[in-house]
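Sample intake sheet
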Amino acid sequence: MQKRRAKIVATIGPATLSEKTLSRLISVGADIIRLNFSHGDQKGHGEAIARIRRIEKAMAKPVAIIQDLQGPKVRIGPLKEPSYRLKKNATITILNSPCVGDATAVSSDYPLLYQKVKPSDTILINDGQIVLKVLTIQQKNISCRVLEGGILSPHKGVNVPGRELGFPTLTPKDRSDLAFGLKHGVDYVALSMVRTKEDVLAVKRFIKKAGQSTPVIAKLEQAMAIEHLDGIMESADGVMVARGDLGVEIPLEKVPLLQKKIIKLANQAQIPVITATQMLESMITNTRPTRAEVSDVANAILDGSDAVMLSGETASGKHPIKSVQMMARIISEAEAPMASPDRPLEKKIPLPEAVSRAACRLASQMDAQAIVTSTLSGGSALRLSKYRPIIPIIAFTPNPQIKRRMLLYWGVTPLEMSLLKKSDDIFQEMASGIQSAKLAKKGQLLVMTSQSPRNQEQSKGGSPADLIKVHQMES
């Protein structure tokens, strides 16, 4: 069983594409691999997926894959040089026609940008590292003055705070990429630039039409999304606190408390929440993070994050393996003093909640070795996870894809088992699985949950666990 409860999402890129490096990344603690479809092409991502599945098989260890769609994000075009330094008060023009840019003129990939901005508007590049003020708009070209200079690199993101740019939920590129990802069996789809629940539902309809049920993670990075949090929480299968664009869309000083609010709401909604962006940013170039970064990761764990994410640190940084190792150490240390939350007893709660709560409390009171559940959809494991028990959670499933999806759930160790019909058989099978995996010793107690035989026969995998059994290991 993994002692660390919160999970690590690692983005792969040029620094981690080789099979050897990727294997090492997974072996030192990366639970989930993120493929960023803002970069690279489908051929390269297809090769990466095949490589991950080979490693998964060779290591006999499940690895989940998140496909992160580019979304309707405006980006500047290519540049003549790898980068340029823009100086304060310099002028730069955002051209409407494609070009290979320099420090005086660049193109964007959104031909209607000139219609959406007005003179005196602020334009931010690369998560606000560069700040421009719109001067004039002539012949569809946007002339700007540099208010805050910085390093300009190709294909960096462009934000226009306070302006609705009128993008569709899925761009043509997103539709093509999503169809590709579903065909190749990605485990999660992360949707960029979510504004309302309708964005999430539109993607779910696309996925359903493709004959799949892949969960959708809503990336919260737009001011409009914050205004519609309740609806997004109801419709999404998970959320990501994408602090890069979020810190551009709203004042930076508001992000920490907003992060706590989002994590709390996600925990209440019983969906996984990932905290992301610049978590160990300095490790892109340095072998050690700053004290502030360590505190940031630890606080994300203490807030209740199911997972924390590495981006440039593992995609293009100099020290991808050390970054994952450091993240794992910080998580373990932050979790050390954590105790199962002692929530007040509600007068009436739904059956799934009652069973999950009772199992967690019983396991704690009896000092059980683990809480063990069987699940066809992952739902019972997720419910147990949201009670944050100090006892490890082991979840058996006959579905390999559900096994991978459960890697995102806090504190859950997924294992595979065959599909059985009778509840007693399931309890015995789970005990045998625990024994085979050497996860408990003779005399130790397991608190098990499962469906009753009647519910198993009547349901098609959708009914929650409604039985609890205390099992003592015999050998």
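Comment: Residues 7-72+169-334 form a domain with the TIM Barrel fold (CATH 3.20.20.60). The first helix runs from residue 19 to 27.
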